[in-house]
Amino acid sequence: MNQKIRVLQIIPNFGYGGAEMLVKDLLLAQDTQKLEMAACSLYPFSGTNIEEELRENNITVFYLDKELGPDPRMVKRLYDTFIRFKPHVIHTHRYAIRYTLIPSILCQVPVKIHTIHNIARKEVDLAGRIIHFLSFKLFNYKPIAISKIIGDTAKDYYKIDNISHIHNCISTEKYLNNYKMRLKTRILLNIDDDSLVIIHVGRFFPQKNHRLLIESFSRVLSKINNVKLLMVGDGDLRPEIEGIVNRNGLNSHIKFLGVRKDIADLLSASDIFVLSSDWEGLPLTVIEAMAAGKPVVATAVGGVPELIKNNVNGFLVQPKDPDSLAQALIKMAGDREASREMGAMGRKMAREKFDIRIMAKAYENLYLDELNKNYPKKCLVY
Q1: pLDDT at 375
Q2: What string of H, E and C letters represents the secondary structure of the chain?
Q3: CATH C-level class of 5-169+356-374
Q4: Which percentage of the chain shows pLDDT scores above 70?
Q5: CATH topology match: 5-169+356-374 vs 172-353
Q6: What pLDDT, on the 0 to 100 scale, is given for residue 377?
């Protein structure tokens, strides 16, 4: 093909999450000499940080104004969008396939990619999993897993063998440690330079198990007094977690910061990154912490062990075990030299294996390879 390859990224919305960050980073890292990439959000514009960044970078986004719940109008609106943009490749995320399947068949889109962001049984509801099964088995949607373990769960659940793996990645250059920014951010947060700062970044959602984190942190406080916990993110469970913190008298040690644009600055101001999740895909927040040179204490779930090597760039603990999580945090806090070495190793691993340029090139090669296989069957509609 002599023309640019048109790729349409399709996602339910641009809220705060790993899938949304991946789409945004792919859009911004694209090779504009080879690709013409746009995005499609099923839900209306809502002014999130991701949407503002896409707008600032002049990325085309089609908004289809979906209503809450099932909305069959999306099928026609996606069909119209395909006719308008004429994609050679559609790349779907989360539950978007349930709306793209019919229009992609009608338009005979040459290449259809779906990234699986979570373990197969957790990614979508039962109806969605049935549609995914049919898409992978009968309608040539190519599944891509964000980690090996996610791929294994998809192989087992959907009974498929044609799955590939492309790790989530980030722009590692954004997370260089900056001592001046560390001091400035601590001043803004009213945290003195001698305090040990632990940071958690994630939606207030059952998956993240903030209850476990609070219980573990209270045990850390019984051993280390001068310690703070930064909780970054928002979600339905935030009021409940704030209530637990209030009832246990932890307000002076825990700060709820909401959704933030300055994650890199907050990481600079922190000493340890913690993840307390019950399940994960391949969390970008852990990669961000690694890129910022922070040691990580995390539950060994999903693709996390593909990022964190125990006693190398952090500590892994079993999920749903508050004592193990607390002990690992206390151990990390007690040996500052070892924690700095782990942070440095994490930064090296992030730059070498999880930089956005690696992911962007892998997806570009995938689009080209799949298009070379499928483009002879030209689109009948456009």
Answers
A1: 67
A2: CCCCEEEEEEECCCCCCHHHHHHHHHHHHCCCCCEEEEEEECCCCCCCHHHHHHHHCCCCEEECCCCCCCCCHHHHHHHHHHHHHCCCEEEEECCCHHHHHHHHHHCCCCEEEEEECCCHHHHCCHHHHHHHHHHHHHCCEEEEECCHHHHHHHHHHHCCCCCEECCCCECHHHHCCCHHHHHHHHHHHCCCCCCEEEEEECCCCHHHCHHHHHHHHHHHHCCCCCEEEEEECCCCCHHHHHHHHHHCCCCCCEEEEECCCCHHHHHHCCCEEEECCCCCCCCHHHHHHHHCCCCEEEECCCCHHHCCCECCCEEEECCCCHHHHHHHHHHHHHCHHHHHHHHHHHHHHHHHHCEHHHHHHHHHHHHHHHHHHHCCCCCCCC
A3: alpha beta
A4: 97
A5: yes
A6: 55
pLDDT digits (tens, 9 = 90+) for 237-255: 999 999 999 999 999 999 9
- Residue 375, C-beta contacts closer than 8 angstroms, at least 6 positions apart: 1, 88, 110, 111
Amino acid at the residue 55: R
Averaged pLDDT for residues 304-323 = 98
Query: pTM for this structure?
Result: 0.89
pLDDT > 90 fraction of the chain, expressed in percent and rounded:
92
Q: For residue 246, what are the contacts with CB-CB under 8 A and spacing of at least 6?
A: none
Residues 47-98 have pLDDT tens digits of: 999 999 999 999 999 999 999 999 999 999 999 999 999 999 999 999 999 9
What would the two tokens of residue 349 be? 């691993």
CA neighbor of 217 nearest in space, from 251, 189, 186, 177:
251
Contact criterion met (CB below 8 Å) for 70 and 99: no
Q: Are strands 89-93 and 5-11 parallel, antiparallel or unpaired?
A: parallel
Is the pLDDT at 1 greater than 70? The verdict is: no
Please check whether residue 236 is in contact with residue 204, taking contact to mean a CB–CB distance below 8 angstroms: yes
Per-domain boundaries in the chain:
5-169+356-374, 172-353
| Tokens (6 digits) for 293 | 């040179």
Give me the mean pLDDT over the 125-131 stretch: 94
Write down the CATH number for the domain with range 172-353. 3.40.50.2000
